[in-house]
Design goal:
With 653 residues, this protein is α/β, with parallel strands linked by helices. Helices cover 32% and strands 21% of the residues. Bound molecules: 5'-O-[(S)-butoxy(hydroxy)phosphoryl]adenosine. It is an enzyme of class 6 (ligase).
Amino acid sequence: MSNESVQFYYPSDEIVKNAAVSGMDAYKALCAEAEADYEGFWAKRARELITWKEPFTQVLDESNAPFFKWFADGKLNVSYNCLDRQVEAGLGDKVAIIFEADNGDVTKVTYKEMLTKVCKMANLLRAKGVQKGDRVVIYMPMTVEGIVAMQACARIGAPHSIVFGGFSAQALRDRINDAGATLLITSDGQFRGGKALPLKTIADEAIAMGGCDTLKGVVVFKRTGVECNMVAGRDEWLHDGLANQPETCEPEWVGAEHPLFLLYTSGSTGKPKGVQHSTGGYLLHAIMTMQWTFDIKPNDVFWCTADIGWVTGHTYITYGPLACGATEVVFEGVPTYPDAGRFWKMIQDHKVSIFYTAPTAIRSLIKASDTKPEVHPKSFDLSSLRLLGSVGEPINPAAWEWYHHNVGGDRCPIVDTFWQTETGGHMITPLPGATPLVPGSCTLPFPGIQFAVVDETGADLPWGQGGILVCKKPWPSMIRTIWNDDERYIKSYYPADFQGKYYLAGDGAIRDKDTGYFTITGRIDDVLNVSGHRMGTMEIESALVANPLVAEAAVVGRPDDLTGEAIVAFVVLKGQRPTGDDAKKMIKELSDWVGKEIGPIAKPKDIRFGDNLPKTRSGKIMRRLLRGLAKGEELTQDTSTLENPAILEQLKG
Ligand code: WT7
């Protein structure tokens, strides 16, 4: 790609004029400011944007690297910063949340009402014995109460750990166990696409598996009204618990390094990692990215379609928008119910001005609207939109163009935000009033963020050459450690390959040889990205081999037009290799099994059976061969080291 052939999309003069970061010179000035005085750059914003109970005097503490500390002697409370200070600033009657339920019912909650709800919930948590530092697991659907529960934890300094409502009993049990949680907040059920799905029964199953000994109680929010078994002495309905709670609650003022939350994510081994985030640094980046990436203004209606079960829902639903005093839409349901026009209708109805979603959702809606004009974005009034965002996986240029044209009416910049659970907020992203856009590229680092593309030794690579994505300097919202596993934190993110100096993102990247724009080329570890959801191949393999019928399993990814990547599993059974209808039955059985072990999102799209797996003479599974087979490629690769070439035929699929 040479400069002349790059087609840039420039923001209009109007957008540039009104943007928080106005024009490329302003962007460059911010980068230069950070370059000249790195700590000063962050400290200035931390003082301006956060209300501190006690101001910090230290900025970055590297004395125990790579366990970095930011603003460590400052004291604050995130819930205070999100709610009380908005009410104190006269925004009490401003709508904080426009909640649209799966069935279309709309509820509006003002800042004042949010504050009262959070205080009552916080008082309930305290009454339940939850103290500062205790972990609370939240297993809830997308509802106002889910956000209230998170904010309530923040208010009393109890780190929350959200478990996505699509995860299985086993996954929930493992997370409660690893976090040593003392309280579980869940709901009777959840609505999705017109169906009421169970949640409490799954939670009961999780606890029955054993290993949740730290758990002292379960609080249950009534959402669907489905009957559920309440265990006396352990379980309590949320509405009962809240009934007599006072409407005010003094926040727990915590140090800036106090953990705000844990969030489990997949890594390259079977066991998910409890990513631990801080309070002060995390909040700072949530606010800065709301202001610079999303250019949030008082009259905006912001809508991030993520679930609170993922980091996107933490930073850009629960914390960022509220800390900025914004009005946001919160959505329960799926983009295709009651039909694939749901998103566009909601943008129209609520006059959404900033819309943030995932490429997978866009791709599925493109497909759905191809044949059905009534669900095409053109059939809706989307004139309220001024800015679009994309997150979670690379957005292919065709989907980008469609989104830009059909949803953004050719006038809304698209911010393609690259970041991770571990980074807390945007790392590489366009700024809408500054960065000329190129479809498929997340463009340039957020001001202050020092991302680079290096080789295996950590040496900088020239633009135009693909390599490993690293961050050269610690930043305020970065992961602090893996819960209970400092060793794994170092090994995963500050490996010896780079003398322990660089943060390893786990992605490959290339910078355009002329513009220096970043394009993410995909994970360099055994992590897959399916519909923007992160899945470890080892995690799925462990789930498969836990089935008594399975002897061995290997899982790889293959590119998929709709989901980005698709999961392909190669399985060796203890018994005979099944064929025909037997194979079909077994595929269904194993797929359901994985769904039960991890959750439906981990179900393989394709399962193939062999008498064995392709291995080297030393017994190592040849994954590159499996990746080729998964894609249906003709095997031109060197198979000379292969012990058992005959089985390749069986695995062709
Ligand atoms: C992985 C992180 C970002 C929050 C939600 C997912 C991939 C994320 C992009 C993007 C290309 C992206 C990376 C990253 N990814 N955003 N804009 N372009 N790839 O967080 O579950 O921690 O996954 O998602 O591979 O490492 P996550």
